[in-house]
Amino acid sequence: MARKALIAANWKMYKTPDEARAFVETFLPLVVSHSRDEIALFPSVTSLATVVKAAAGSNVHVGLQNMHFENEGAYTGETSPIMLKAVGATHTLIGHSERRQYFAETDAIVNKKLHAALKHGIIPVVCIGELLAEREAGDTAAVLKTQLTGGLDGITAEMAASIVIAYEPVWAIGTGKTATPEMAVEAHSIVRAEVARLLGSDIAAAMRILYGGSVKPENASSLLNEEEIDGALVGGASLKSDSFSAIVHY
Ligand code: 13P
Predict the structure, then answer these.
(1) Could you read off the pLDDT of 164-202 as tens digits, one per residue?
(2) Annotated catalytic residue: which of 68, 91, 96, 188?
(3) Which one, of 194, 192, 231, lies nearest residue 210 by Cα?
(4) Considering only CA atoms, which residue is closest to atom 2 of ligand 1?
(5) Which of 48, 59, 76, 216 is the most buried (most CB within 10 A)?
(6) Is 96 a residue of the active site?
(7) How far apart are CA 179 and CA 174, in angstroms?
């Protein structure tokens, strides 16, 4: 079954609303006729509404980098699924390694956010990946399986169709060190097998598994031409419209 790739930009804590709007204005013409892959932008929360408006009617989806699991409440600094939808966004990242590393997100929190996203019809991109020490200790498969088992707890095959997984080895994020296509394919195969165990082989066969970690225009095609790699989650190289569009056109 052919899976439509998703090429996604995680802007992290970069870009003011004006900078975000300027990006979209130069980026849209570069991808206007691109239908092979889905494209999504994940701006910071202050730029979310601006980017949704700037991309309205285009082939570019917009989402949050992080979302709380409650609809509303006394959660200072957080953004709820209802707020995300109210501005017209459709996607959210969940459990990015920077959220896990700096904001103590656990698999249990990832799981609550995933349930909330699915309940609200928001497309979740669930991020998993091993630390360098875990890879060097030979624990990559065990770490990915633990993150998936915890993250997908209570999710059934009926609920799972929209879930996207992003495999982002932590040692490759922002370091310029990319996983080789072979390493990424090996990890994606582990992820797909674990998804099959948890949710069945039909869901696993249809699930998009993105690679993230120092994806650049120069290495995008070698990664994305692999059948096991169903798209990319791009940080640094997504901040400029020319380099991100070059990745989209890998
Ligand atoms: P870089 O592309 O900057 O390595 O970041 C990857 C990432 O964290 C995307 O979510």
Answers:
(1) 999 999 999 999 889 999 999 999 999 999 999 999 999
(2) 96
(3) 231
(4) 235
(5) 48
(6) yes
(7) 12
Structure tokens at 154: 């209570």
CA distances for 181 relative to 37, 123, 173, 177, 247, angstroms: 19, 26, 15, 12, 15
Which distant-in-sequence residues (6+ apart) come within 8 Å of 171 by Cβ? Answer: 130, 131, 132, 135, 177, 213
R_g over Cα of the chain: 17
Lining residues, ligand 1, CB within 6 Å: 10, 96, 168, 173-174, 212-215, 233-237
Q: How many residues does the chain have?
A: 250
Question: What residue segments make up the domains of the chain, in order of their start?
Answer: 6-248
pTM: 0.97
Q: Point out the ligand 1 atom lying closest to the alpha carbon of residue 238.
A: 2
Does the active-site annotation cover 61? Answer: no
- The secondary element (H helix, E strand) that includes residue 134 is helix 132-136
Question: pLDDT of 38-87, one tens digit each?
Answer: 999 999 999 999 999 999 999 999 999 999 999 999 999 999 999 999 99
Catalytic residue, chosen from 98, 168, 194, 228, is 168
Q: Which of 91, 131, 132, 168 to mutate to test the pocket of ligand 1 (most atoms within 8 A of CB)?
A: 168
Whose tokens are 């020490």? That residue is 133
Residue nearest atom 7 in ligand 1 by C-alpha distance: 235
Tokens of 31: 């991808």
Domain 6-248: what homologous superfamily? Aldolase class I (3.20.20.70)
